[in-house]
Each structure stands twice: as C-alpha cells, then as structure tokens.
Structure to design on (150 residues):
C-alpha cells in the first residue's frame, strides 16, 4: 500500500512541534505516531490514509470515554489533558458529517442492502463504515440504524 499522506503530515507536525517547543502538542502527536506504528508492526504492513483514520477514530473514542470517566470522578486536571489530546487528534480526521448527511447515508445503505429488520444491521454497517469512519461517532450511528430497522 502507498505511503499515507496523512501519516507524513503527522510526522511533519511532530518536527514542527519540536522546533516550536510545544510540549503538550508534541506529546499528543507522539501518542498518535506510536499508535500508528503499533498497528503497522502488528499487521506487518504500511498503513494508508483510511487505516490511519481508523486508528485516529479509535483514539478519539478512547479519549471521549476517559473524559466521561474523569468528569464523573471530578478529575478536571485529567479531563483537561484528554480534551487537549482529543482536539489535536481530531485535527487529522476528515470533516465531521452533519446529521442530514448521516441520515442520508443510513437511508441509502438500507435501500442498497434491502435491509428490513435488525438482523440486517451488519449489512448496513458494512456499507456505511468506510464512508463514515472518522467522520461520525460509530456508536451513535449504529444506534440510529437500530432505530430505523427496529
């Protein structure tokens, strides 16, 4: 697979953050590069943009969950760190889908698959996932699909 332009952009931003002495940004970018490298080592292949987006999407989900847990525990110091990391990670994700775009995607996928019940959820998700990965919260999206099919 060809080298990822997104991965290259992240590596260039690591160098820029080093030169600027921006330690919080540098730390977050290093977390991103480490996560990408880990997946590359595990899968033994070079990652493309779609693979990098999947890793970033997973990192965002982890940060959102951590923010929720830290908020419940009144750990604002940790919430601030997670929110800062989340902001940096989302810079590299494609523009988020609007509610109308998500609804249109779901309806199109249901029509395309001929889905009629919750049993067809997997078919619908398999069509939507490549289009929505990194652009929408997949958990919320699956909830919306269940509502439409249920």
């Amino acid at each position: 697979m060809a080298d990822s332009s997104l991965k290259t952009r992240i590596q260039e931003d690591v160098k820029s953050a080093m030169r600027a002495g921006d330690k919080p940004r540098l730390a977050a970018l290093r977390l991103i590069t480490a996560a990408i490298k880990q997946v590359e080592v595990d899968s033994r292949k070079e990652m493309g943009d779609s693979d990098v987006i999947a890793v970033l999407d997973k990192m965002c989900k982890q940060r959102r969950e951590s923010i929720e847990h830290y908020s419940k525990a009144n750990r604002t110091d940790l919430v601030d760190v997670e929110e800062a990391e989340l902001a940096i990670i989302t810079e590299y994700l494609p523009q988020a889908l609007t509610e109308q775009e998500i609804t249109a995607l779901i309806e199109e996928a249901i029509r395309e698959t001929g889905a009629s019940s919750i049993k067809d959820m997997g078919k619908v998700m398999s069509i939507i996932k490549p289009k929505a990965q990194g652009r929408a919260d997949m958990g919320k999206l699956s909830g919306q699909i269940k509502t439409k099919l249920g």
